């Protein structure tokens, strides 16, 4: 079984401040982990992914995430928030099941950026 | 490269009516997924196809939901009859055998 927990359904930061969105995972096998972003009325867009290579993963739009096995975490960070970062962010874990990828999403964190 | 296409983008129906959604994945992508995203929740997998075969439909409410991908390309998801709790965004995604899914814009369904 696998699951992800995103702490905080809503996070507010000031423009220019650090963004930290938390994700903890549970997986019986080494996981692949993803962060997706969803803008209003749009589908999900891949931000970054961890697939057992480097533990610090850099993604698009200045975001990065660090895989910490000891903490079972994959928190998303960005040094300086921009107004355009306001969106909903989903952490996801995937595993190979019978040759196919099975993905489980977290409940999402809505990021508000205050000017 | 064209992305995943979905239609319609919005649909409003009354309960007990039927509705169908269409998805055209990225060309060459063998795997296709349908997700249900209820407001305030993450996407939940309804059904996964590999070419025209079903890989996983364990969370599909089969008494009212059905899906097909007859030629292994585009797919249709149907709800008959719809209930109020089916109000959600229905997302289609496709995959080329790697670890990344590509999502369409979704269809927002409102059941009154």
Report on the structure:
Chain A contains no helices and eleven strands. By secondary structure, chain A is an all-beta fold. Chain B is an all-beta fold. Chain B contains no helices and eleven strands. In chain B, the strands form two sheets. In chain B, strands 2, 4, 5, 6, 9, 10 and 11 form a seven-stranded mixed beta sheet that branches. A four-stranded antiparallel beta sheet of chain B has the order 1-3-8-7, with no helix packed on it. In chain B, strand 7 and strand 8 (75-79) form a beta hairpin. At the A-B interface, strand 4, strand 5, strand 9 and strand 10 of A face strand 5, strand 9 and strand 10 of B.
In short:
The complex is a heterodimer of chains A (115) and B (112). By secondary structure, chain A is mainly β.
Number of DSSP strands of chain B? 11
Report the major sheet of chain B: 7 strands, mixed
Task: Indicate the structural class of chain B.
Answer: mainly beta
Radius of gyration of chain B: 13 Å
Which stretches of chain B are low in confidence, meaning pLDDT under 50 for 5 or more residues running?
A: none
By oligomeric state, this entry counts as heterodimer
Query: What is the β-strand count of chain A?
Result: 11
Largest interface: A-B, 25 and 26 residues
* Large-scale geometry of chain A: globular
What percent of the residues of chain B sit in helical stretches (DSSP H or I)? under 10%
Helices and strands, with pairings:
The complex is a heterodimer of chains A (115) and B (112).
Chain A: E1 2-7, E2 10-14, E3 19-27, E4 32-38, E5 44-50, E6 56-58, E7 64-68, E8 73-78, E9 87-97, E10 100-105, E11 109-114
Parallel strand pairs in A: 2-11
Antiparallel strand pairs in A: 1-3, 3-8, 4-5, 4-9, 6-7, 7-8, 9-10, 9-11
Chain B: E1 5-7, E2 10-13, E3 19-24, E4 31-37, E5 44-50, E6 53-56, E7 65-68, E8 75-79, E9 88-95, E10 102-103, E11 107-111
Parallel strand pairs in B: 2-11
Antiparallel strand pairs in B: 1-3, 3-8, 4-5, 4-9, 5-6, 7-8, 9-10, 9-11
